[in-house]
């Protein structure tokens, strides 16, 4: 965990002016959002703080909302050349918009122009979690949306951007964790004794193993993992040693096994939430889903 | 593909003595198996050749079968020190039995002794596809089996070992291939336009990308992959670009997506078969299985 | 199959005036739709005929579209008392709108008034497949939609209504059929030898068994079922004799089985299509989906 | 619930002779099982009582075990004509063995003779949960088993028969219940607001609705169902009003829905256990499994 993050109790205790200064850049060119949210303190969680900030935006009448949306910079190399907020610069650069080849850049320009002509404000996207592929896939879909649907989606992206900027500044409440649960659908019973590893994707794309354990008689870990504030937003992967499990139960010989080790990648967006990932397992099939 | 492999038509055309010499080591200390199979030529596939060889073993009366099983070397560091067939040496060494630490080695010795006392022949396992984890998991399970069940499993391992040795010597018929098929369970329709990659695990554990394609309107590749003799036994992995697909369809924003890229590892045991791997996909769950 | 249905070749051969007369009531108060579609004949399938008719509506400019939508009667007891088209009368009566109690009727009136005030045309729903529960669930959701999204959904309902009216008048092309396919995920292989029944829901709510068969070695029926024009729109149900299958394979004893007989209900909307319903089966879980 | 059942506390309090008399017929022609189990009282649950009784059988040496197994009557019309225990008569009659046609009866005789010749004791099956189909499917499979495997399976059937006879005599502890949990895999979130019904299969084959509820925000019922001793062994069915749920969320229009109402049949074998049945739901697929 980053040690230089603000703590929620510090945010709750500081002056309104300091609070507004600390969180001002969370919404692009809209320091008033943080300023207004100061009055709603104290916040027990980052989720509650974020919700309070969004409430201010949802309350905007149409002209003020248009102005707010227009405060967002265009996503484009040109924006980076001209200069924009530090936050947007970092986000757009992380996606590689500072180094697009000419063809891609021109395609992006055409989409930006078409979008602005249709909707009257710039295309807004939480680019830090995007790739160029998802950027363009999203852009083309949203260009065809109705104005009402698109406004809702633009606001959802505003929420996503501001949430990630909050996570950059403030330590989340230690309420989140992850867990898994494996059901053996051959025996219609929990899969005990199965080796499981939990890995995290690092910012350089590499994977780091966080922990490993063997499932208990209930097919689960004895306690929630990454609790107590250790869960960070990001991408994780469960790796299940299914070949050994199948060998132990005689479901399939090692030589003839069909399934290799099962891996399930999942993304933690809100580290104050619990992420439960069950696995339904048999030699010929498996199912995974977001549990609750 | 290895170019120094024998071809089936060459095997079919050679003298019985040459055939027996070429395939003699396929069954451990039982060159008669290859000798007897020569008369059943020609074989259109390696699968048919293997089946003919196994027929000879299945026809053995109990004493001859016991003798055949006893022709297999014990899996142990001691065996490697004393020397055994070239094939078994290579297989046991690949699993690391030449470099076990003392504790593991002693554990293996105890299991071997208990097994031989109970069943009257050595523990047989197709070790090349095994890990130490699956070796011990399998060993402990089989030690508790009934004599009849265990004899069946020992013969299944004999089949697995001989199959892999055949694959080392003879080029498989070009009848195998792989395919995938993605169903979008949100729309209850094929998932067209989804990026898919096929990767292969190399002998050093690294992954090599074999091909990539975008699913057609039926949610599949336009043609079977790795056909025409290009499919080799081994471990493969499908990688599906589900985040981009979800972004295009607006199922989930990139920032809030729950599932990361979906990967499905599967093992090709018989490269003369077709391996079909469907994926049922939604933002909150996926299911994969061995199709047909 | 109803023998008094028009045949597509007869429709293709008749005069434009007869064609228009035969299909005039298919779109509510819009006989011009059938009249215009006559020129696009011949049609090989009902699906093609329907698509041609819809093309005429999709081409309407906004004022003409508003007029077209306003040609639809309000769904309400009052409409039935005052009298409307024979088709709408039959459809609304089938849903029970002629016999609503006062409270439900008042609730429907309130929704109708709110909807018309918001969108400027009556709420349109393909009521024949609806229940009062789905009517109200749909109504409340659509009342909150954006005008653009709601117009798209109203047109989808127009398509659904007209499709069912076409099915009342014209025999579908004999291109549709149903099939199932069962995978045994314990053995990672097709589930052969499994007893399967196909049932159809009758208009009185009762179920009629259409056919039964035992799955072949590929886990399927030897041929598509209800082909050759025997498939009608409606609700069907697969019933799988999983307890006997499990007993035969020793997966679970009859006494301790967890799953009862598996039933999968599915709706055929377009009898010119093929409906494939796979089942992934194990003693502790099953998955079914719309295949392709 | 049957009110004339013995209570566990009464069984715990009665004399050993009365206990033995009350439970003597639970194991076929082996009143000593109940007699011996008396000393292990008190029992908190029927499960514990049953386990104690089975312990006595598992401790038998081979000759005594053979004698015990041979105390079971042959399953056949001839047995019923000659007369056997009241319990076995009732069980065999419920399966219809008193009214087999000649061909089926002869087939059963052949299997019985072959089985007894092979294993040295009669074929034992918990027939009350069987059908003629599962009887024959099981019989043919077990006839081919190894003596060790078959002895284990015969003892499993002894356990099943005695368990059902215990349930006939003694009221189970009120520890069991059922529950369901529905995940919406489109939104990757619990499916709240979904109508669910729980039905029970009656002895005459008809279905009775036990209860209905609407799922809460967690996709579940607010409390476990059939708790407090209301759960009886038997077959149950969940019925989910998926069409209304899909209509409310706009996942599919009623007219075009693919899936009909989802029904999941499951069997409660031990009414002292909790039976959790999750459902993973999307418009194009669903998965159900035995949860824990």
Task: Provide the fold topology.
The structure is a homotetramer of 292-residue chains.
Chain A: H1 8-13, H2 16-23, H3 31-37, H4 46-58, H5 62-70, H6 77-82, H7 86-95, H8 102-119, H9 132-143, H10 147-169, E1 177-184, E2 189-190, E3 195-201, E4 207-214, E5 234-240, H11 242-249, E6 262-268, E7 274-282, E8 285-289
Parallel strand pairs in A: 1-7
Antiparallel strand pairs in A: 1-2, 3-4, 3-5, 5-6, 7-8
Helix pairs in contact in A: 2-3, 3-4, 8-9
User: Which class of the largest domain in chain A in CATH terms?
Assistant: Mainly Alpha
The major beta sheet of chain A can be summarized as: 4 strands, mixed
Provide the gyration radius of chain A in Å: 23 Å
Which shape of chain A, going by the Cα principal axes?
globular
Low-pLDDT runs of chain A? none
Biggest sheet of chain A: strands side by side, in what order?
A: 2-1-7-8
Count the helices of chain A. How many? 11
In terms of DSSP E residues, the strand content of chain A is 15-25%
Features:
homotetramer; 292 residues; Immunoglobulin-like; 2 domains; four-stranded mixed sheet; four-stranded antiparallel sheet; 8 strands; hydroxyisourate hydrolase activity (chains A, B, C, D); decarboxylase (chains A, B, C, D); lyase (chains A, B, C, D); Transthyretin/HIU_hydrolase (chains A, B, C, D)
